[in-house]
């Protein structure tokens, strides 16, 4: 099940944080999904574990990079040679 499917099922009132932070935190870590926090019955905040947030941001950055490459390909921008690129990456890793 993806985290997007969990958005609907992980809805908690704001009192869940105030009254039992540890259980709320455990839910965020165990599900690795955003939790919608409600205030007066209305959606107010979205909370997630730091790890889930980092993964989400990494997916977003990767998507942005892939979109940029797609635009470059569509524009006819010459691509780098795979072997040269791989050799450059390997050299950078070895020098770190």
From TrEMBL:
Residues spanning the membrane: none
Pfam family, one: PhdYeFM_antitox
Alphabetized InterPro entries for the sequence: Antitoxin_Phd/YefM, YefM-like_sf
Top-level taxon of origin: Bacteria
Gene3D superfamilies: YefM-like domain
The family this protein is said to belong to: Belongs to the phD/YefM antitoxin family.
Function statement: Antitoxin component of a type II toxin-antitoxin (TA) system.
NCBIfam families: phd_fam
Protein name in the entry: Antitoxin
Lineage: Bacteria, Bacillati, Bacillota, Clostridia, Eubacteriales
């Amino acid at each position: 099940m993806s985290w997007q499917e969990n958005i609907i099922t992980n809805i908690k009132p704001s009192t869940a944080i105030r009254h039992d932070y540890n259980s709320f935190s455990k839910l965020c870590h165990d599900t690795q999904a955003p939790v919608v926090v409600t205030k007066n019955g209305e959606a107010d905040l979205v909370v997630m574990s730091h790890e889930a947030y980092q993964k989400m941001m990494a997916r977003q950055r990767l998507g942005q990079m892939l979109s940029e490459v797609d635009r470059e390909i569509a524009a006819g921008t010459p691509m780098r040679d795979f072997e040269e690129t791989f050799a450059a990456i390997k050299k950078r890793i070895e020098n770190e």
